[in-house]
Every structure is written in C-alpha cells, then in structure tokens.
Description:
Layout: H1 2-33, H2 44-52, H3 76-79, H4 104-108, E1 118-121, E2 158-162, E3 172-173, E4 181-182, E5 193-198, E6 203-207, E7 226-227, H5 234-241
Parallel strand pairs: 1-3
Antiparallel strand pairs: 1-2, 2-5, 4-7, 5-6
Amino acid sequence: MPTLAKAKMHANQIACLNNVKQLHLAWLLYAHDNNDRLVYNLGGTEIKQILGRNQSYNWANSVLSWELDPDNTNTTLNTQAALGPYGASAARVFRCPSDRVVSKLQRKAGWTERSRSISMNAMVGDAGQFTLTGINVNNPTYRQFLKLGEVDSAPEIFVFIEEHPDSINDGYFLNKAYESEWIDLPASYHHGAANLSFVDGHVESHRWLSSRTKRPARPDGAGLPLRIRKPDAADFNWLIERMSTY
Length: 246
C-alpha cells in the first residue's frame, strides 16, 4: 500500500507538471497573437467587476472561497477565459490532481474538489488597477512585465505556480518583497514541493526547505499572513528572487 500511494503521488506530480506546461504554452501563444502583450492578471475585486460587465479577458476568472459560491466549481470561468482559445480549454489544466481540498460545508454539499489550484506571478501581465502607471503598487521598485520581450532573464522569472488551497482565491499570486511575511503561500502537494513554469517555457518542481512553508493542505492550514522567521527565510527569498527584477 505505501508503494502504491507513492506511485500515485508521483503520477499526480507528473500530471500536474503537464498541466502547468500546457497553461504556459497557452500563455506564450496568447502573447505571440497579441503583439507580445501578456494576458491580464487581475485581482479578485477586479475580476468580479469585469464578470459583472459580461467580460472574461483575465487569464482565469474563478475567485475561490470555502463557501458554496459557484466560482468554486464553475470551470467555464477558466476554460472560457482569455487562455481558453490558446489550448487551455480543458478544465483539468487549471488544477493539480492532488488537490482534493474542500471545506466541511462544501463536502457536505457533495463537492470533492474546486476548479483551480494554479495561480500566476503578480509581476507578470497587466494587473489592472494595481499597474495603472506601469508600476505595480505592491512592489514599486520591481519591474512589472507587460510584454514578453521585456523579460530579459526569461529562465529565472516564474509565471505559473501551485498555490496553497487556503491561500488561493484569485489567480494573482502576490508577495511583497520588503515584508517578512507570506501573503500568498505556495502549495506543497508533491512531497513538500510545488510545480512552477518559467518565462522561457521550462517547468520544474521545487521542494521547499522550511516546515513553515509546507503548511497543512486544509481550509485553515495557511495561517496567513504568515510571519517569516530568519531561519525560515530561504523559501521566501528563493521565490522573491524569481518574481521580478529591479
């Protein structure tokens, strides 16, 4: 049984890597088809606003919660969003098969999963109200990449990342470089690792070092904002270094 469980976990990790790869390919195709401009990467409030206007131009439009909101299970909010026509029209590519986390309320309603496990680096793409001046107000001394050609260190900047189920809400994965706390926390479904894609197209599975980064995958598991102690800073620093450039 332990051997079978380990094999299943490995298979899920490979499937998740493939999903991240497919999302990333759709992201690249969108840019090539839109004069190098990167797809919108909006926060939850603005996503709700555009949906209220019957618009769906964000990369993904589900805003997740632990309640019985239809966003949690409405897969068309993602498959019919901006990346859908470019190869992200299958609901499975937006989630990791290891992510089966729902709240007690949701499980009681018969739910077994939510619609998305993956988010996008907040410093990549047009973030709407956060980048009206071309600078991201959340990290003002770092570059906001609005076009593919602006990324001069493509192998080092991440685009998609698996996010902790208690952290994920919108698809805008944000941490502020000068604050010693996690605002959004990466997932650690794969033996303490998360899958990421990078601008140049490669995907990798990165294993977190600190037990405080590898928080339990449950509705109250993240404990955000999560203060970072100096001995536990390596994971946060690793991700910030791959978030953007000055």
